[in-house]
From TrEMBL:
Tree of life domain: Eukaryota
GO cellular component, one term: cytosol
InterPro entries on file: Papain-like_cys_pep_sf, Peptidase_C19, Peptidase_C19_UCH, USP, USP_CS
Membrane-spanning parts: none
Protein's GO biological process: protein deubiquitination
Protein name: USP domain-containing protein
Residues annotated as domain USP: 24-331
UniProt source species: Alosa alosa (allis shad)
GO MF terms, alphabetically ordered: cysteine-type deubiquitinase activity
Pfam families assigned to the protein according to its UniProt record, in alphabetical order: UCH
């Protein structure tokens, strides 16, 4: 957000209304709105805090540089009974020392993935490390099939957030997911080298879904880098509060190893970007664990909202609010005991 409006925000004293919810607002310290919005969505991810709480680091470590330790401390401070004026300042400084500088406008998805990577780098407990990774891992099989000799080059990989390309005009989330997994033709300059033919050939490329995580993070790719500039797509993307994968994907897009699971996913956090690619501001809608109520966190200001207002982040108008990241949680069935896939 702009320096001017940032100063304006600091001058306006928080009103009593700011603290009526169970959610703590976070002051904006020099363009920290991106990390603030992410912290709100992470604080609604109780599964991650439970895993971080199980960590008992031993040996030599420096807390001020340790992202998982300071994240854990910050999340607890945000839940504390006696509000501190700035529970996240140490965390912002810690990120700054770990190549996520303060006073810079960031991309929320990049910072989210960097925070996850920094947690995994500093985590000394290999079991917990694996469980944190599994919490977010979307496992896929990438296929490139040569159109000439039908050789299938298969690569297993995973993503910690599902990057969905958007098209101009109207989009809906289910269509975007289908398109992500659907096979596409690679021809002309996009031709791929075929190992069997020994030369570049026309081919088809696609992903097959192997498994879905407990926490599904979806990245709506609203920013395009073109000709040295970043452009923002303000297009409308509708998304449901309950997502059922088994009714979205074509059978062709599901791997043989996929274990059918009809548990639907419930939306619990939306990271919102408003403004333009050059001049933006991040906020978040969150639904705390165990609550049906939605809250809107705009830095230090937090207020209760209804589902209709969450849907105002579908976008479609230039400079309006647009959902940028969606966090869904797999609903537990009676047989579920944990969150492993
Ligand atoms: Zn071939």
């Amino acid at each position: 957000m702009s320096r001017l409006s940032y100063l304006g925000k600091q001058l306006s004293r928080p009103t009593r209304r700011d603290y009526v919810s169970s959610i703590r607002g976070l002051r904006n310290f020099g363009l920290s709105c991106c990390v603030n919005a992410l912290l709100q969505s992470i604080s609604a991810t109780e599964e991650l805090l439970k895993l971080l709480d199980r960590w008992n680091p031993s040996g030599n470590y420096e807390e001020r540089n340790n992202v998982p330790l300071l994240l854990r401390k910050t999340l607890h401070s945000m839940q504390g009974e006696s509000p501190q004026p700035a529970p996240h300042c140490e965390f912002l400084d810690c990120l700054d020392r770990n190549s996520i500088p303060r006073n810079v406008q960031h991309d929320a998805d990049e910072v989210f993935l960097s925070i996850l990577n920094l947690i995994l780098q500093k985590m000394t407990d290999t079991q917990l490390k694996e469980e944190i990774l599994e919490l977010y891992k979307v496992k896929v099989e990438g296929h490139v099939v040569c159109s000439e000799c039908t050789f299938n080059h298969k690569v297993n990989s995973y993503m910690l957030s599902l990057p969905l390309p958007l098209q101009k005009g109207q989009n809906n989330l289910e269509d975007c997911i289908q398109k992500f997994f659907r096979q596409q033709e690679l021809s002309g300059e996009d031709k791929c080298y075929c190992e069997r033919c020994g030369e570049k050939q026309r081919s088809t490329q696609g992903f097959k879904l192997c498994s879905l995580p407990q926490i599904l993070c979806i990245h709506l790719k609203r920013f395009r880098y073109k000709g040295g500039f970043t452009q923002k797509l303000h297009c409308k993307v509708t998304f449901p509060d309950t997502l059922n994968f088994s009714s979205i994907l074509d059978p062709d897009c599901i791997s043989d190893v996929f274990k059918k699971d009809d548990s639907p996913y419930s939306l619990y956090a939306v990271v919102v970007h408003s403004g333009t690619a050059m001049f933006g501001h991040y906020t978040a809608y969150i639904q705390p664990p165990g609550e049906q109520t939605w809250y809107y966190a705009n830095d230090s200001r937090v207020r209760q909202v209804n589902w209709d207002e969450v849907q105002s982040s579908f976008g479609g108008q230039n400079d309006g609010d647009t959902a940028y990241m969606l966090l869904y949680r797999r609903q537990k069935t009676s047989e579920d005991q944990g969150y492993s896939v």
